[in-house]
Amino acid sequence: MKTLPIALTIAGSDSGGGAGIQADLKTFAALGTHGTSALTCLTAQSPAGFASVHPCPAAFVRSQLDVLSRDLPATAAKTGMLFSAGIIRSVADWIESNPGIPVVVDPVMIATSGARLLRPDARRALLDRLVPSAAIVTPNLDEAVEMLGRPLSSVEDLRHAARAIHGRWGVPALVKGGHLRDTRLATDVLWDGSAEEILTATFVRGVATHGTGCTYSAAITAFLARGMGLPAAVKSAKKFITDSIRDSVRIAGHTALDPLHRHRSRL
User: Fold this and answer.
1) Residues 16-38: tens digit of each pLDDT
2) Number of helices and strands in the chain (H, E)
3) Residue 195 in 3-state DSSP?
4) Catalytic residue check, 214
5) Are 43 and 72 in contact (CB under 8 A)?
6) Do 18 and 209 form a contact (C-beta atoms < 8 A)?
7) Which of 12, 20, 177, 213 is catalytic?
8) Which end of the chain has the lower number of beta carbons within 10 A, N or C?
9) Is 62 helix (H, G, I), strand (E, B) or coil?
């Protein structure tokens, strides 16, 4: 019987199935890992927009994590939408008590639609408690601006931002440039404190979707769970998210990422 590594997502639910734990679990399955989840929030959303959020109690989030640690210990984990300071502190406490698990921190602050997914009082908890414990932090352009408090508008800005995040919080940073304007390539910059990787892919035109950040960070998590080193995991995840965007599907008139594109092509 085949044994699968376990990848854990600590994130919110997307009722539309395109982002959050739904995207994470599809990505984990596509990349040969068993996905487990600790739910932080319920959301009412669809590809058309974000309506409302209902957070889970912080103690319940920790209860989920403790059960999983006991019975289904993860090889790697990721965080997504955490929403409140209490949830962030609960997750950070769990990470500190499980130092052997690399955690990919996707600092979910702002949705693709522009909706704010982090309470104002939770920003400090995210930056002070969670980010310093990350194996890697993966902000998009808007989130990197929030973290550093300065505008970013070029690939050179991304390079400086990745170094600044590492310098401030002491963790590897992948700054994603998919929202840069007037550029032919989707460029991301990884800085781990000693080496820089500039990852590029041609923009997939005509595709407007959400869940790319979730899928990207989940792919990094899955590759880490399978034993890859960090730079290799990020490079492999970049290809995976590019393929998922390129092979997007239509659902009820909307466009959705397809993390299971490799498997679906066999049907």
Assistant:
1) 999 999 999 999 999 999 999 99
2) 9, 11
3) coil
4) yes
5) no
6) yes
7) 213
8) N
9) helix
Residue 43 pLDDT exceeds 60: yes
**Annotation says 79 is catalytic:** no
- Per the CB < 8 A criterion, the answer to whether 6 and 225 are in contact is yes
Locate tokens 């019975």: which residue? 71
- For the question of residue 41 being annotated catalytic, the response is no
Query: Per the residue annotation, which of 40, 75, 79, 209 is the catalytic one?
Result: 209
Exactly one of 176, 178, 187, 215 is catalytic; name it.
176
- 33 is a catalytic site residue: no
- pTM for this structure? 0.95
* Whole-number Å distance between alpha carbons of 262 and 251: 18
Sign of the Cα torsion 258, 260, 261, 267 reads: negative
The terminus-to-terminus CA distance of the chain in angstroms comes to: 24
Kindly list the distances between the CA atom of residue 15 and the CA atoms of 49, 52, 75, in Å, as whole numbers in the listed order: 11, 11, 27
The residue with tokens 């044994």 is 3
Note the CATH architecture for domain 6-261: 3-Layer(aba) Sandwich (3.40)
Q: Residues 36, 75, 79, 214: which is the catalytic one?
A: 214
